[in-house]
Design a protein that fits this description.
By secondary structure, this protein is α/β, with parallel strands linked by helices. 39% of the residues lie in helices and 25% in strands. A 6-stranded mixed beta sheet has the order 6-7-8-3-9-10, with helices on both faces. A 4-stranded antiparallel beta sheet has the order 2-1-4-5. The longest helix has 23 residues, at 3-25.
């Protein structure tokens, strides 16, 4: 290999390193003294949490740990009892400006049951200033993920299986190229082939330094595979905050086995 080729390889290697360093220095999600209380019971209590821009962030925990509560607060679906969350320096419960760069799917309640998948995709496209050609291009890109079960079947969303409803919700989240993607339990109700294809989609998103991906799941293995960082919640509090490594899955399995 000639010196010029070595210099080119070195240049792009250094550039990638600088991009990764930049990703870790810009905070996309900032949590400060956040809590949520229902009838005197605190279900979430996070004093401080920063999620850098470009990070793929996994949230794990048992039922009732506070995962969905955290995402609901992040999306301003419920109000905090104390504290706040900022997304790209915008306090989410004081402004709606964060919505323009955020895509999310928590459950089938995000869907509109009396629409077909195509009608729903184009509806979301209109909300995000995407024309029909833009939406069609995204749908074509993820044709394998749909596995021939979603488009051109003349079924309403309410008549699809839970797994196929989830497929629609996940891909609709990506319309408009959001900078923040939030997926709650994305692997649930999906068959093994679809899970494998979904992990590929999430990994591709995570490779983009401008996209911050947040995933919550009961499935430790899948979450570890697609996330750079794992935060474990227990009774609403952070009990582990781990940069993903070869040992992460075993560490989490041992923790939750207690």
């Amino acid at each position: 290999m000639c010196q010029f080729e070595n210099e080119i390889i070195s240049f792009f290697g250094n550039l990638k390193s600088k991009i990764n360093n930049l990703k870790s220095t810009i905070t996309m999600i900032q949590v400060n003294q956040l809590s949520k209380t229902y009838n005197g019971t605190t279900v979430l209590n996070i004093s401080n949490l920063d999620i850098p821009k470009g990070q793929s962030f996994g949230l794990v925990g048992n039922n009732g740990a506070g995962k969905t509560t955290f995402f609901s607060l992040l999306l301003d679906l419920i109000q905090p009892s104390t504290g706040y969350i900022k997304s790209n320096d915008i306090q989410v419960n004081n402004s709606e400006n964060w919505k323009s760069f955020t895509g999310s799917f928590l459950d089938e309640n995000f869907l509109i049951g009396y629409l077909t998948p195509e009608e729903y995709f184009y509806f979301i496209g209109d909300l995000r200033n995407q024309n029909k050609a833009d939406v069609d291009a995204l749908l074509a890109k993820h044709e394998e993920f749909f596995n021939g079960e979603i488009l051109k079947n003349k079924k309403y969303l309410r008549d699809l299986s839970k797994g196929n409803q989830k497929k629609v919700g996940i891909i609709a989240t990506l319309i408009g190229n959001p900078e923040v993607v939030i997926l709650d339990e994305p692997f649930a109700n999906l068959d093994p082939t679809t899970v494998s294809r979904l992990k590929k989609i999430i990994k591709e998103l995570a490779e983009n330094p401008n996209v911050t991906v947040l995933v919550s799941s009961h499935d430790l293995q899948h979450t570890v595979e697609v996330c750079d960082r794992i935060v474990a919640l227990n009774k609403g509090e952070i009990v582990k905050d781990i940069q993903t490594s070869k040992e992460t899955l075993q560490e989490l399995e041992l923790f939750f086995a207690v």
